[in-house]
Structure formats: structure tokens, C-alpha cells
Specification:
about 15% strand, SIS_dom_sf, Glucosamine-6-phosphate deaminase, Rossmann fold, 5-stranded parallel beta sheet, alpha/beta, SIS_dom, GlmS/FrlB_SIS, 14 helices
Length: about 325
């Protein structure tokens, strides 16, 4: 896991070198009458899909949803998907429900795109279009480099589709490398024996909160829960007390502004609070500055390292979490 965290800048650089391939995919999408986007994924890839949902809605102005695959695979629901772009995201491309749902979406008239790290996988073959992450084999069960590769691939695709020329792309690997050097030792010491952790985000940092909670659950066996800051205040905040550790992930910009009331509430309830991102919001983990929509690429890196260090401090093997395998086959 440590090696694969460190490989992320190189993986992202390699992906940037294949922008012409991504531009070709976007041109094919532009040629179709796409009016709606559906995203299908599981696990870490589902958090990348949630990120893409924000991108599609804010950059492209298209309605976008997260697909309920069991509606197609279990309940055998049928509907017209003409005008729909179906994007299936999976590092392995091996989950049967994702493959079956993608085939069903294509049969219903959708344009289907698979985003995988496995170009010869069944999912890649089942979709009309395929975007290969090219991240190399990921041996640790906990996804790190494939997750950030998915984030960047989806950002590049949406940028190309929107016709945006974004010069910041060239500097992304360097910013991610600097995020990997951020000192997390003090936070790791504070959270070494934490029994309950809440991760909280808003807007572009909400997918990061979800992914961070998953990493903590997978590697450390911590009871971690992720919330949108708005949803936290609608009831779950009753769960917050001095025995709970709260990681607030601020993307700056709009999302950071919307998180300020959440910080005030959890602090008033006596929780142990760590802010990731904006140092103006409090102590914690300050990450390198980048445009708000790209913060999920940067802010997850120290949180991956935090999950790794907490697992090792607890005598656990983060590469082989109990009861988990690299490819999860759901139906």
C-alpha cells in the first residue's frame, strides 16, 4: 500500500500523456445526443463516480445520477435509455453485476463507456467505449493509485467534453507528490486508538470523505462513517460527542464555505476535530492549494497515508484486510 501511494504522481503523469485517447472518446460522446449521464460503480470506484456526478452537473450542466444496478440485474427493470451516457467505473472490470448492468444499458439504447484498469476485462469488452487507466497492477487490497487515476481520468474526460483548455493539468502530478509529503504524524498519534471516526465533506470533498472512511474501515477496522456536512446536521450530529473523532475535509471555495457551520456544531459538541485542507478552518492536515474541483486528487493522499499508519500502529496488515479480496464479485 505504501509503494502504491507513492506511485500515484507517476501514474497520473502517464495518464496525462494519453490525453489524445481521452479526447477521442469525448469526441465520440459529443457526436451522440447525450442528454443524461448515469454512473455505475462499487466500492472506491463508486466514490469516483460521485465525484464525476459533481463534475458533470457543474461543468457540463447535464443531469446526472448514480445507477441502481440491482434494478437492472435483480429486478429486471427495463426502460428506454436513449440519450443516456452510461459510465461504468471499476479498477478490475470483473464484477458480474456491473458487467450485466452495462450490457443491459447498452441494449436499452445507452451509449456505454467503461473506465477500468483492465483493458481485457469483461467489463471493458461489454461496453461500446473504454478508457484504460494504465495504472499498472495494484497488489494491495485497499485501492489507492487506481482511485486517483479514476478521478483524473474522469476530470480529463469532462474537460475535453466541455471543450475547456485547462493549463493546470500539467502541474497535477507535482501537487499530488507534495501532498504525499505532508506530515501526518501528529494526527496519526492522536487517532491511534480512536474507536469511532466521522469523515465529513461538502461538494467536491464529499467523495473524499466517503473514500477516507472506506480506507479506515478496510485497513484499520475502525467504525468510520462518512457524511455530507448538510446531512450530518439533519440528525446524525446527535451521534457526535467527546468520544468521537471528526475529520472535516475542506475543499476551499464553495464547499469550504458550506462546511463552516458544521465545524462550529461539532466543536460545540466537544468532538476531537481534524481539518484536512484549508488551514484557516483549524488545525489538522494542510494540503497543497489547487482548484476546488481538483482537491479530491490531492486531499485523499494524506488520508490514504493516515489509514496506512493507523493500521500499522494497530498491528494490522493494510495490504490484506481480513475477509477482503482485491476483486469483489457482486451479483
Amino acid at each position: 500500500m505504501r509503494a502504491e501511494i507513492d506511485q500515484q504522481p507517476a501514474v497520473l503523469q502517464s495518464l496525462l500523456h494519453r490525453r489524445t485517447i481521452i479526447d477521442g472518446i469525448s469526441r465520440e460522446i459529443q457526436r451522440r445526443d447525450v442528454r443524461f449521464v448515469l454512473l455505475a460503480a462499487r466500492g472506491s470506484s463508486d466514490h469516483a463516480a460521485l465525484y464525476a456526478k459533481y463534475l458533470v452537473e457543474t461543468v457540463l450542466g447535464l443531469p446526472c445520477g448514480l445507477a441502481s444496478m440491482s434494478s437492472l440485474t435483480g429486478y429486471q427493470a427495463s426502460s428506454s435509455m436513449t440519450g443516456v451516457l452510461w459510465i461504468a467505473i471499476s479498477q478490475s472490470g470483473g464484477s458480474p453485476d456491473l458487467i450485466e448492468a452495462t450490457s443491459a444499458a447498452q441494449a436499452a439504447g445507452a451509449v456505454t463507456l467503461a473506465v477500468t484498469n483492465a483493458p481485457t476485462s469483461d467489463l471493458a469488452r461489454s461496453a461500446e467505449l473504454h478508457l484504460d487507466l494504465g495504472a499498472g497492477e495494484e497488489q494491495s487490497v485497499a485501492a489507492t493509485k487506481t482511485y486517483t487515476a479514476e478521478i483524473l481520468a474522469l476530470w480529463l474526460l469532462v474537460n475535453s467534453w466541455a471543450g475547456r483548455q485547462n493549463p493546470v493539468a500539467a502541474g497535477i502530478p507535482d501537487v499530488v507528490a507534495r501532498a504525499g509529503d505532508v506530515d501526518i504524524s501528529e494526527v496519526a498519534d492522536r487517532y491511534r486508538y480512536a474507536g469511532r471516526i466521522l469523515t465529513v465533506g461538502r461538494g467536491y470533498s464529499y467523495p473524499t470523505a466517503c473514500e477516507a472512511a472506506l480506507k479506515l474501515m478496510e485497513t484499520c477496522h475502525v467504525a468510520a462513517s462518512a457524511f455530507s456536512g448538510a446531512d450530518l446536521l439533519h440528525g446524525p450530529v446527535a451521534h457526535v460527542d467527546p468520544t468521537v473523532s471528526v475529520v472535516v475535509i475542506s475543499p476551499g471555495g464553495v464547499g469550504g464555505r458550506l462546511l463552516r457551520p458544521v465545524l462550529e456544531v461539532v466543536a460545540d459538541r466537544g468532538a476531537e476535530v481534524c481539518v484536512v485542507g484549508d488551514p484557516d478552518l483549524g488545525a489538522g492536515i494542510a494540503t497543497p492549494c489547487i482548484a476546488e474541483e481538483l482537491t479530491p486528487l490531492v486531499q485523499i493522499v494524506p488520508l490514504q497515508r493516515l489509514a496506512l499508519e493507523l493500521a500499522l500502529a494497530r498491528g494490522l496488515d493494510p495490504d490484506r484486510p481480513r475477509g477482503l479480496t482485491k476483486v469483489t464479485r457482486t451479483h
